[in-house]
Amino acid sequence: MKCLVILVKVSTIGSHSSLQILHGAKMEGFQTSVITDTKREKFYQQFNFIDKVLAFKDIDEAVDLINSEEDSVLIPHGSLVEYLGQERVNKIKIKIYGNRNIFGWEGNQHKKMYLLKTSNIKIPQTFEKPEDVDRVVIVKLPGAKGGRGYFLAKNKQEVRQGIDDLIKKKEINSEEDVIIQEYIVGVPMYFQFFYSTLLQRTEIFGIDIRYETNIDGLRRLPQGYIDVEPTFIVVGNIPAVARESLLPKAQEFAESFVNNVKEKVPPGMIGPFCLESIVTDKGEIVVFEFSGRIVAGTNLYTNGSPYSWLYWNEPMSMGRRISRELKNAIINNKIDLVTT
User: Is the pLDDT assigned to residue 99 strictly greater than 90?
Assistant: First the structure.
């Protein structure tokens, strides 16, 4: 089995969830490599599960280094498109684990919400333009920015002012770049899933809550104590376990999403994804975004989550689950089912 696996290496960009991806790959018998900028080279060199560290000085060189690993499968994560940009990612010639066609959907908030809505998943109200706003909203930028630039607004005037400020700062080109979304009050729960094309099974793999600055710092202060605009930049993740009665609905949403992606974004969902949700006091799950690849919240579960143990009864991080699927695909001569 190992002699088959060694014909293919696993590589990824050094950031986001690269440590668990490469750690999991090594546990499944793969050779590993990380492509990172020179400032982080020393950091990744300390880990013995990383066989090769390839350092670049500029972003264009990063694509060349990725393509130089001709015997590798690249595992994408949230930093891939955000760091390299879609145009450079399109120049990647080696196999990518998962469906590379979903990157363009993930980077466009309007297409992203369309995909959720047509999956019959409950989503927040979306407003086409600032003048339509009649309640508290959150305005979001495109791409995997970890919440950077997002802002809350109480009315149409605040929405217009916030968008104009983003345009002045050149964060966006026009108001069409953002999405204006009803702000749902409840508990955030980010439901992590893995869709196995080999087993044709959707596995619930874990749940996390994002730790955001400065909104999570402000809520610890008495109301009105300090006048600071809240921001939503993700700096960490907190583990969560949902009450079991919520899981069937989350699973139903995930399976409906998988079926819809298969139809609208061929060849469909492959591997990890996340339904980023709010659970209301009525027990409703409202999904406000999705991630079509591994999310950083899975870093909490390097030794497996409470849910992954139910499937595998062994330590199974999302990184290792990716490589387990890749290994089984190679062994069964089905690598084209898990890569694009």
Answer: yes
